[in-house]
């Protein structure tokens, strides 16, 4: 109970502190802090339109954050989710282009599975290089992302290119039936639901199942895990593949719900934003959902802030930076013994009673 | 999430939107809100700055309110920005300026807001295929790149000039070819070395490309990337000359800057604004060159010789008079094949030119 209270109070306090610091910041820049705070709230969560804006921006981040969080539970720091996103998008568009798929839900599931497979293989490759070749997975996954982007551009601008896409090289568009639409006529596409479900499923898996527990043991102490007979390498590869599959699906959803084809606009940094989301969520799959929504909210609010106050785009990045540094820093307060802290404060207080008691002890 | 609540709320906001969007068209006196969206920073000394300069001019006009947003990626984010400009700021004319905003983003939002007008930079609006409330505008900036080439041709001592380009797409190839033909009209032996960086904004690669071409003896540079700043500064640092692109970069390197190909988007913006204010049909497809005032040249730098100025001004006068065609036969590509047979002339408006997929004779590089 105490722990869950801290889980809520620490980040909430950090965000409030960040808004305060940001208020001072914009005040120095000549804007009214009050107006900025109101606009931030209005832009992110003020009405149904703002909510749609926020949720739509949050949708891809949930899946790309899982690409960091799931391997993290197995003790790996994977930062190359971007590679899995673009290859997922490519696999989605490529399969739709290469095979006559049924133009309905079945086809959509097939392109998403193809994307999941592509992403899974790519991140599992980073895991394999670590387990069997001793290559640091952080570096290799990042470098693999560059290779994936190169591969993506080569194929989109070359063999898979729709010849009619002149100034914006793209693959052929997905058939209407394969695309992912909005939820109940809104702008928010089903990718959000997939993202939330994936986060919940990952949370259940990590915390409620034997294999999830085994992954956590491997992440905690691989040597001990091997001593008790857990297949550490296999579990690490599994965690990498699951994470990669999530990022791959994020790419497929971007293609099927937003772009309708694979093109360079897919390389929008969702994979890298996911790293931040996962770290703020402390690699906890379920916590990714609110963090991703907060992140989407920053994006939505930044948009309104620019339009209303003419503040530069960087101003919201400043707020985001302050907020995330404070959220991470607030973790230092988690283990503080508050009772002792307040008692100490009391001792320093004017009454002086406890200190007066000291000399009597000997 | 209660669906009935959502639907009711959406209907309400849609009704409000319809009213907000329709009223400026009906009453010309009411202020017109124009939304402008940029893919990069407004002060990039390049593509986005050229658009932002026109937006800044628009702001000064009475009865016009401009809302802007920069660094908007070509993803769902731009759809949200467009929707927000209409829904939250009451914009009735939205100008998404990056090429990638057109399909599917602008088309998707335009379908949802039939009363708002959309004007996109560079897209190919096609009758019957795209909705009537959307439009595309662009300029024949290859005319300016041809003039850049003429000046470069006069100023180069090594007879090697360089072009740093983002991607081998038609708009870029057309500029490379025009620049090369301009230079070779002065000295037929000149060659243009091209390096493609692979994307619109790759500052590190752009600097590397500039240095590598400078090492190879290239002494005049031009470019087609979103922000030419790095190339201009690097070339100047290496003691080389540059012709600018998109906006004027003269401030960055006053001595090295010869001249430049600049957009003059105010012409396009005012065309759309006038039509929106008077309630006339949306001009769906507008294009123009030097003659129509869609593009302009930067002022000559201090080192440009009189002979260079004279020839460039002469060609420019012919272009303005509509008597100069850049792409005409006989024209060979850099592999020796004839691209345009003798006697055939492509006018600037010819859509064939928007499909360009070759590099002309004299260009060192491949598509």
Structural notes for this entry:
The complex is a heterodimer of chains A (362) and B (367). Chain A has 362 residues and is mostly helical. The C terminus of chain A is likely disordered. Chain A is built from 15 helices and no strands. Chain A starts with a helix and ends in a 5-residue tail after the last helix. The longest helix of chain A has 29 residues. In chain B, strand 13 and strand 14 form a beta hairpin. In chain B, helix 5 runs parallel beside helix 6. With 367 residues, chain B is an alpha/beta fold. Chain B has two domains: 130 residues, 3-Layer(aba) Sandwich (Rossmann fold), CATH 3.40.50.2300; 194 residues, 3-Layer(aba) Sandwich (Rossmann fold), CATH 3.40.50. Chain B is globular. At the A-B interface, helix 3, helix 10 and helix 12 of A face helix 1, strand 2, helix 3 and helix 4 of B.
Output the keywords.
heterodimer; A: 362 residues; mainly alpha; 0% strand; disordered C terminus; B: alpha/beta; Rossmann fold; 2 domains; 7-stranded mixed β-sheet; 10 helices; 38% helix
Q: Please give the share of residues in helix of chain A.
A: over 70%
Structurally, the number of domains of chain B stands at 2
* The CATH superfamily title of the largest domain in chain B: Response regulator
CATH architecture of the largest domain in chain B: 3-Layer(aba) Sandwich
Q: Provide the succession of SSEs of chain B.
A: HEHEHEHEEHEHEHEHEEHEEHEEE
Text of the CATH class of the largest domain in chain B: Alpha Beta
Q: How many structurally independent domains of chain A?
A: 1
Largest sheet of chain A: none
> Which chains have the largest interface?
A-B, 37 and 44 residues
The amount of beta strand of chain A, in percent, is under 5%
Unreliable sequence segments of chain A: 352-362
Number of strands of chain A: 0
- Which geometry of chain A do the CA atoms define? globular
Strand order of the largest sheet of chain B: 12-10-9-8-6-7-15
């Amino acid at each position: 109970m105490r722990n869950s209270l801290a889980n809520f109070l620490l980040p909430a306090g950090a965000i409030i502190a960040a808004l305060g610091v940001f208020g001072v910041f914009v005040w120095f820049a000549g804007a009214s802090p009050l107006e900025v705070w109101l606009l931030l709230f209005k832009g992110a969560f003020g009405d149904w339109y703002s909510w749609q804006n926020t949720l739509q921006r949050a949708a891809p981040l949930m899946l790309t954050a899982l690409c960091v969080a799931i391997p993290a539970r197995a003790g790996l720091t994977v930062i190359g989710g971007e590679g899995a996103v673009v290859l997922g998008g490519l696999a989605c568009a490529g399969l739709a282009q290469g095979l006559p798929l049924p133009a309905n839900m079945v086809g959509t599931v097939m392109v998403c599975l193809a994307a999941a497979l592509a992403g899974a293989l790519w991140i599992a490759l980073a895991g394999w290089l670590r387990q069997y070749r001793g290559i640091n997975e952080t570096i290799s996954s990042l470098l693999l992302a560059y290779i994936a982007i190169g591969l993506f551009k080569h194929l989109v601008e070359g063999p898979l290119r729709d010849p009619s896409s002149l100034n914006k090289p793209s693959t052929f568009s997905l058939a209407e039936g394969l695309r992912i639409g909005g939820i109940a006529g809104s702008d928010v596409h089903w990718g959000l639901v997939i993202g939330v479900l994936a986060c919940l499923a990952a949370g259940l898996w990590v915390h409620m199942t034997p294999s999830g527990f085994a992954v956590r043991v491997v992440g905690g102490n691989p040597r001990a895990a091997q001593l008790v007979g857990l297949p550490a390498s296999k579990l690490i590869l599994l965690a990498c593949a699951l994470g990669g599959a999530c990022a791959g699906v994020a790419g497929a959803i971007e293609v099927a719900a937003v772009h309708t084809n694979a093109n360079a606009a897919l390389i929008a940094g969702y994979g890298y934003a996911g790293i931040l989301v996962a770290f703020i969520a402390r690699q906890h799959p379920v916590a990714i959902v609110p963090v991703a929504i907060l992140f989407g909210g920053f994006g939505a609010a930044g948009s309104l802030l620019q339009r209303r106050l003419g503040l530069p785009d960087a101003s919201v990045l400043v707020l985001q930076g302050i907020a995330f540094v404070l959220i991470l820093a607030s973790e230092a307060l988690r283990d503080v013994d508050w009772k002792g802290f307040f008692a100490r404060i009391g001792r320093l207080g004017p009454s002086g009673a406890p200190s007066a008691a000291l000399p009597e002890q000997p | 999430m209660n669906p009935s609540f959502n639907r009711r709320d959406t209907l309400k906001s849609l009704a409000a939107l319809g009213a907000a969007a329709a009223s400026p068209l009906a009453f010309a006196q009411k202020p017109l809100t124009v939304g402008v969206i940029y893919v990069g920073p407004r002060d990039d000394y390049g593509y986005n700055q050229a658009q932002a300069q026109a937006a800044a001019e628009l702001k000064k006009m009475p009865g016009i309110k401009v809302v802007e947003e920069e660094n908007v990626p070509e993803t769902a984010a731009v759809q949200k920005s467009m929707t927000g400009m209409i829904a939250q700021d009451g914009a009735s004319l939205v100008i998404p300026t990056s090429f990638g905003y057109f399909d599917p983003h602008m088309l998707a939002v335009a379908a949802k807001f039939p009363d708002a007008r959309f004007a996109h930079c560079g897209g190919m609006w096609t009758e019957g295929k795209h909705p009537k409330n959307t439009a595309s505008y662009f300029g024949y900036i290859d005319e300016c790149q041809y003039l850049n080439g003429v000046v470069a041709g006069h100023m180069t001592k090594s007879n090697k000039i360089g072009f740093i380009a983002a991607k081998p797409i038609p708009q870029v190839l057309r500029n490379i070819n025009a620049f090369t033909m301009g230079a070779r009209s002065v000295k037929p032996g000149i060659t243009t070395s091209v390096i493609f960086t692979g994307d619109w904004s790759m500052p590190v690669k752009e600097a590397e490309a500039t240095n590598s071409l400078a090492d190879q003896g290239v002494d005049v540079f031009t470019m087609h990337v979103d922000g030419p700043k790095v190339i201009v500064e690097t070339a100047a640092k290496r003691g080389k000359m540059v012709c600018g692109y998109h906006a004027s970069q003269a401030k960055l390197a006053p001595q090295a800057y010869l001249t430049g190909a600049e957009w003059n988007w105010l012409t396009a913006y005012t065309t759309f604004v006038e039509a929106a204010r008077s309630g006339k049909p949306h001009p769906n497809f507008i294009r123009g060159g030097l003659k129509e005032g869609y593009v302009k040249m930067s002022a000559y730098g201090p080192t440009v010789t009189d002979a260079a100025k004279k020839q460039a001004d002469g060609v420019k006068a012919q272009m303005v008079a509509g008597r100069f065609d850049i792409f005409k036969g006989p024209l060979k590509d850099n592999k020796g094949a004839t691209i345009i047979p003798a006697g055939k002339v492509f006018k600037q408006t010819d859509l064939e030119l928007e499909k360009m997929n070759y590099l002309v004779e004299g260009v060192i590089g491949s598509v």
